[in-house]
Amino acid sequence: MTTPEEKARERIDYQLNEAGWIIQNRDEINLSASPGVIIREFPLLHGAGYADYMIFVNAKPVGVLEAKPEGYPVRSVEIQTDKYTAGLAYDLKPPITPLPFRYVSTGTETIFWSNLDPDPRSRRVFQFHRPETLAEWIKAATLPEWVKDWKPADKLYGSDDRPSSLRSRLQHLPLLQPGILYPNQIKAVKNLEQSLTEDRPRALIQMATGSGKTIMAITSVYRLIKYAGARRVLFLVDRSNLGKQAEDEFVNYRTPDDNRKFTELYNVQRLTSNTIGSSTKVVISTIQRMYSMLKGEPEFDPALEEESLYSKGAALPKEPLPVVYSQVIPLEYFDVIIIDECHRSIYSLWRQVLEYFDAYLIGMTATPAKHTFGFFNQNLVMEYGHDEAVADGVNVDFEIYRIRTRITEEGATIEASDGTMVGIRDRQTRNVRWERPDEPLTYGANELDRGVVAKDQIRTIIRTFRDKLPTEIFPGRKTVPKTLIFAKDDSHAEDIVEIVREEFGKGNDFCQKITYKTTGAKPADLIQAFRNEFNPRIAVSVDMIATGTDIKPIEIVMFMRNVKSRVQFEQMKGRGVRIIDENELKGVTDDAMAKTHFVIVDCVGVTETDLADTQPLERKKNVSFKALLEHVALGGTDPDYISSLASRLARLDKQCGDNEREKIAAVSGGEDIRSISHAIVTALDPDEQIEKARHDNGLPADVDPAPEQVHAAATNLLKKAVEPLATNPELRNLLIETKKSFEQIIDEVSKDELLIAGHSPEAREKARALVQSFERFLEENKNEITALQFFYSRPYGERLSYDDIKALHEAIGAPPRLLTPQRLWAAYKTLEQNKVRGASSQRKLADIVSLVRYALHQEDELVPYVEQVQLRFERWMAMQQNLGREFTREQRRWLEMIRDHVAQSLEMTVGDFNLTPFVGVGGLGKAQQVFGTELKTLIDELNEVLVA
């Protein structure tokens, strides 16, 4: 009967053969039979017994393998195995003594350690390394030779002439050259390298979406290859478009030391087939393709790596996938594996693919789940959240705009009647047939766009979005900002696309569906167009752009589907946080000045659930910037006020140019806005507050401070953080004035619930406040401003001039009022819609005349000035006809041009005939020819009549 140890040796022998080793008994030794030979039961010196397996590489002993039965605690044999490497029978002259490589295995569990490492530590390996790998390790350069270009030999403590190992070289990396890295990226690289120096096999990097994880990772990869001698690095993603995105980053990356392109130094291969080039240093692959390659499959369908594993949900296998040894891609093939966006379920269902390799595992994500921390042994080397990223100018903050409809929240009932027909659509073919319901059909909100499609519910949301976009969501914008809409499924996305195009009155290019079922164009090409071209303005997706995809110009993320996962919501929300150069933004959105924030348009109430981990830094939106600064000046430490202040400072920093920064630095004593904002966010961090409380109260690290101690520490931290503002009134005033110079004050209108038609009470109240501010300004300045003197006193023989109205326009538009004809027109229309004519978005400078007259109750209706001029002109022409005064067709054409000029410029002079459009038809000379001696009389008369 076979003993447990014999069974173990059978498994071990099979695995050794798979790895390229020839196993021999002592009576059949032939060390030249192969580069890798293993001798069973090899004798040791001084009666020390026998090594179960002695490992020879190129006929030289280099290590031992101790075999134990399955279930045996392998680490209890480490000391015994070390003794085996110290003394050998025969005079074998090993290349390194004691022998460097040691294995203990049961055939089911195998551990390995190398004496070439600075602090040898056993680690689990899938199976055994190949002979050529051990040969390469033995021939490696010594540590002094390896690091001579950046570290003198006298600085290498405890070094010797043995070959260096990856772990020994990691101990001696040169100082990081920051280059173009952000401070958070520098910190992440340093923290990761410290973890590698400590030989921690797994490390997790949590950095906010858009804060530069990929560039940070490439910087680390470059240093690990160049300075630590990493042979290959695997950059692992879970879908192909993220792989392409990573490849582009590698191609564009320039090294910080000599500014050369990464791809000029090292080969980077994004796998599109199941073959890896022999000279490849960085392999970019989906985990699906890598699993296929480990199984030995010659090809892999690219369609299977287009969809995110995370989006497949229940379609994923229920148990981890089996992995077998691959001679083409052995376990030591990669020294480092970087797993991008590692929040997904790959650690439960695909973890054996990762654990197959004898490599350092580095995870990167913005939203780790609990099992993610567990997989990485709780080794979180970098934690950089959304708030910090906003404060540092690495992310933009967000606002939430809510759209609610009755059907969205309550569902509806379709009554059964003779005239009622219900469409029934096949889910697969989308073919529709129509039937008359036998009884009332009631559906709930949770059935929308799954079992029931309510076209008017989608249409109401899209129509509201269209109407509110230029007035409330992004006031003043004419071009639709780049908008990403998340749909429930592909069929729902189809319906949304159709209705968006209809409601916006645009063609196919304006709105595109980008899902895994899109045909006719590659999803990657559609994403590229959405990122870099003017169209599409709106993209509708389900999950494809939900995670990882970098589309910087997005300014609106719109949820028309609910999300149950906190991690998924944070990832989807993160599509809008990325910063973008203002010129790059204008290249795709022509009327955008700068990306200072993005807007979440919530149509399903997802932001009102408990999913979100990150809330906006902006928590007191209705409190003015001035009031927030006064709060800290008076010693206030309310966290919501101070958090909002950090958000406003971060936005202001993005708008400042060099001139503004110099002024702020001069007044602040060298402090910049970004550092103040960052200090505030740090002070708001609960972990910082707890640590401060421990320090202040002399508590050890394992004792939690009392709530009152934490509160006191938080207060001190916040006071310290805002001290540059609280103690410097000149700086506060400068910041207020700087902000005013960039921003136009827009009324904040309450979210339209669409349950009641008409303006909300809040909107009417804000409009009323705006109108009162305007009318109060007129009364207070009636004796100061020339144009107002005309309206109040109407001096005989005097007329308004264009310069007078321009001066009035500048006066009402100056801080703190920041009034414009457009805003005033909209406010009056909100309050007295029946008395206001003309849309409020196309106001001319001359409309100030109409606004002032209406505000002073000199007119009963608010009518665009151009319409008033046209009406007066028609009345004047009718009067001339009654008086028997006739004009030729050519004279009437010239009179109409004079009318239009007066409507724009408030007056007509003889010199104006040298301007457009008059000069194009003959100018003053032609006018004199057409009207003769009546010309000057006509001009005076029209000025008097039209500008009355």
What is the strand and helix layout of this fold?
Elements: H1 4-18, E1 22-24, E2 36-43, E3 50-57, E4 60-67, H2 78-84, E5 101-105, E6 110-114, E7 123-125, H3 131-138, H4 143-147, H5 166-170, H6 183-197, E8 202-207, H7 213-226, E9 233-237, H8 240-252, H9 262-265, E10 267-270, E11 280-286, H10 287-294, H11 309-312, E12 336-340, H12 346-349, H13 351-356, E13 360-365, H14 370-375, E14 380-384, H15 386-391, E15 397-402, H16 406-410, E16 412-414, E17 422-425, E18 432-435, E19 441-443, H17 455-473, E20 483-486, H18 490-504, E21 511-513, H19 523-532, E22 538-541, E23 556-559, H20 566-573, H21 582-588, E24 597-602, H22 625-633, H23 639-655, H24 658-668, H25 673-684, H26 686-696, H27 707-721, H28 723-726, H29 729-742, H30 761-780, H31 786-793, H32 802-813, H33 821-831, H34 847-855, H35 865-882, H36 889-905, H37 923-931, H38 935-946
Parallel strand pairs: 1-2, 4-5, 8-13, 8-14, 9-11, 9-12, 10-11, 12-13, 15-24, 20-22, 20-23, 21-22, 23-24
Antiparallel strand pairs: 2-3, 3-4, 5-6, 6-7, 16-19, 17-18
Helix pairs in contact: 6-7, 17-18, 22-23, 22-29, 23-25, 24-29, 25-27, 26-27, 30-33, 35-36, 36-38
